[in-house]
């Protein structure tokens, strides 16, 4: 019989809280046609996207968020049809809370 102690890995420190959500957001990237993305994780500093076409890492992107318009961001990682972005300017707390109240997933 084999026994081992298990200790879960500590999660990296996050600057601000994140909210799970399902929010359709059209995106544009230089040299790429507009594509539909789904914001599935949002913070005031950035978001995680499910994309329906590949997005290039280390490239600027513009997301059209409801009520906020076009938001500039940088794609910091991309893996198949999932990408992580950091906003050029953080969202205001009021804008973040409004998006979460309208599109956030409650579990």
Chart the SSEs and their pairings.
Blueprint: E1 19-29, E2 35-42, E3 46-51, E4 60-65, E5 69-79, E6 82-87, H1 93-103
Antiparallel strand pairs: 1-2, 1-4, 2-3, 3-6, 4-5, 5-6
Describe the overall structure.
By secondary structure, the chain is mainly β. The protein has a single domain (19-103), classed as Thrombin, subunit H, CATH 2.40.10.220. Helix content is 10%, strand content 45%. It is built from one helix and six strands. The chain has one helix at residues 93-103, and strands at 19-29, 35-42, 46-51, 60-65, 69-79, 82-87. A hairpin with a 3-residue loop joins strand 4 (60-65) and strand 5 (69-79). The longest helix is centred in the last third of the chain and has 11 residues, at 93-103.
Record keyword descriptors for this entry.
six-stranded antiparallel beta barrel; mainly beta; globular; 107 residues; Thrombin, subunit H
């Amino acid at each position: 019989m084999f026994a081992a102690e298990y200790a879960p890995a500590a999660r990296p420190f996050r600057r601000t809280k994140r909210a799970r959500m399902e929010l359709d957001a059209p995106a544009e990237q230089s040299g790429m046609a507009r594509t539909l993305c789904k914001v599935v994780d949002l913070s005031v500093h950035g978001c995680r996207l499910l994309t329906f076409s590949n997005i290039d890492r280390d490239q600027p992107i513009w997301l059209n968020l409801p009520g906020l318009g076009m938001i500039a961001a940088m794609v910091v990682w991309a893996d198949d049809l999932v990408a992580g972005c950091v906003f050029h300017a953080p969202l205001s707390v009021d804008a973040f809370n409004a998006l979460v109240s309208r599109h956030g997933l409650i579990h």
